[in-house]
Amino acid sequence: MKHIKLKFIMKIVLISISLLLTVFTARGREFHERNSLVPPPADTVRSIISPVSPRQAIEGWGVSLCWWANMCGKWSDDKIDELVDWMVSPDGLNWNIFRYNIGGGDDPNWSNCKKHHMGEGKGLRAEMEGFQDERNGAFHWERDAAQRKILLKIKEKRPDAIFEAFSNSCPWWMTYSGCSAGNKDANKDNLRPEYYKDFANYLVEVCKHYKEEYGIEFRTLDPFNEPMTNYWYQSGSQEGCHFDFSSQVAFIKVLAPILTKSGLKTTISASDETDIKIAVQGFKEYQKENATGYVSQWNSHTYSANNRDRSRFGSLARAEGKVVWMSETGSGGNGIDGNLGLAQRLIDDVRYIAPDAWIDWQYMEENNDQWCLVNGSFANATYNKVKNFYVRQQVTRFIRQGYHIVYSSDSCSLAALNPDGNELVVVLINPDAYKVHHLCLPMACTTGNISAWRTSQTESLSPVHDFELKKNNAIDVTLPEKSITTLVIPVTLQANSTHDICDGGTYLIVPQSNATAAVSVTDNKLDLTKVDAADPAQRWTVKKQSDGSYKLMNDSGNIPTCSGQSALTSSNADGAGQTFQITKVDGIHVKICPDGTSRKAWEVKGGKIEAGMDIGTCDYGNSASADQCNWMLVRIKDARP
Question: Are 252 and 269 a contacting pair, CB within 8 Å?
Answer without folding.
Answer: no
